[in-house]
Amino acid sequence: MSHKRERARRLAVQALYQWSFTGQTVEEIEAQFVEREAPKRAELDYFRHLLQGTVREHATLDALYDPLLDRPASQLDPVERAILRLAAFELRDCIETPYRVVIDQAVEMAHQFGAEQSHRFINGVVDRLAGSLRQAEVAAARR
């Protein structure tokens, strides 16, 4: 797994969280993160792709995972929402990324940024989402 992509995912979750609270445009937020991260180790093109795609498609992505929730979407923690949106986007639109990587990264970010038990919740939702969005890949892996 690419550590640069892992860092890009973490930055995307942080940027999505910021976007959900600040009223700033995705372009403003992206510029802030790119400026701060340019000399570091993130894959900035992937970060941009994740951030822009997730913001652009957020309502559609929310509809993908909403039926899998054990609570109303309005009760989601903002960090959980950012992680679920990113995972849904990556599962749906970044087919080159194995579904297990998406799940592992989502769980890791829930450990890092979320509430104490949010990693279990995230794992369950993203695993079921992978089963519906990547049926053939999941079935092949489980044989």
Please outline what is shown here.
The chain has 8 helices and no strands.
Q: Can you walk through the features of this model?
A:
This protein has eight helices and no strands. It is mainly alpha-helical and 143 residues long. The protein has a single domain (3-142), classed as N-utilizing Substance Protein B Homolog, Chain A (Orthogonal Bundle), CATH 1.10.940. Helix 6 runs antiparallel to helix 7. It starts with a helix and ends with a helix. The mean pLDDT is 92.
Radius of gyration: 14 Å
> Which class of secondary structure composition applies to the elements?
mainly alpha
CATH class (first level) name: Mainly Alpha
Shape: globular
The CATH homology group name? NusB-like
Average per-residue pLDDT, rounded, comes to 92
The CATH architecture would be: Orthogonal Bundle
